[in-house]
Amino acid sequence: MANSIEEIITTLYEMVQDAWSLPLGAEKCVLERDKVLDLLDEISNQLPGELKQAKTIVESRNEVITNAKREAESILKQAEQRARQMISQEEVYTQAQNEANEMIKQTQAKIKELRRVTNEYVDDALQRTEEAINTALGEIRESRSSFQALVNPQPKQPSPIIEDI
Question: What's the pLDDT at 161?
């Protein structure tokens, strides 16, 4: 008999169900001892194989679960590491942005200072130029006056006499 354990148990169940009841004992029946013993022996013989197969299945399932847990832990570690990298990159970016903003502020302050100094320098140069031009213009007027006095001498006018009283 190469039946599975389920089939053997079904056969035993049918034998008990179909067995003759004993008179005055409805719960008791007559079975063929050899057939029942043969079926029980077959169950006994197949049970270790079935148990071994069940153990193998359980071990395989446990191994799959263990591998899945390891893989899940690995994925979780990778995700955590990636998150730390992203946070670190964000920190670097934020720090670089802050430094860039500070550099921009410093540059703007330097530009403002350079404009102020340049404006002062240009104003001073223009003032000195204006003074030099005014001095030169004064000298030119004096020279022209002297020239005209030489070219067109004017007779001296008598000075008014003031009488003494």
Answer: 65
| Top-confidence residue, 163 or 76 | 76
Q: Where are the domains of the chain?
A: 5-19+28-110
pTM: 0.38
Distance from the first to the final alpha carbon of the chain: 179
**What is Dmax (Cα atoms) for the chain?**
192
Query: Could you tell me which residues come within 8 angstroms of residue 19 by beta carbon, excluding any fewer than 6 positions away?
Result: 29, 30, 31
Q: What tens digit of pLDDT does each residue of 58-89 get?
A: 889 999 999 999 999 999 999 999 888 888 88
Asked if residues 31 and 16 have their Cβ atoms less than 8 Å apart, the reply is: yes
| Signed CA dihedral, 134, 136, 141, 146: sign only | positive
20 three-state secondary structure: strand
- For the chain, what is the mean pLDDT? 86
Report the length, in residues, of the chain.
165
Q: What are the angstrom distances between the C-alpha of 160 and each of 153, 155, 156, 163, 165?
A: 20, 15, 12, 9, 15
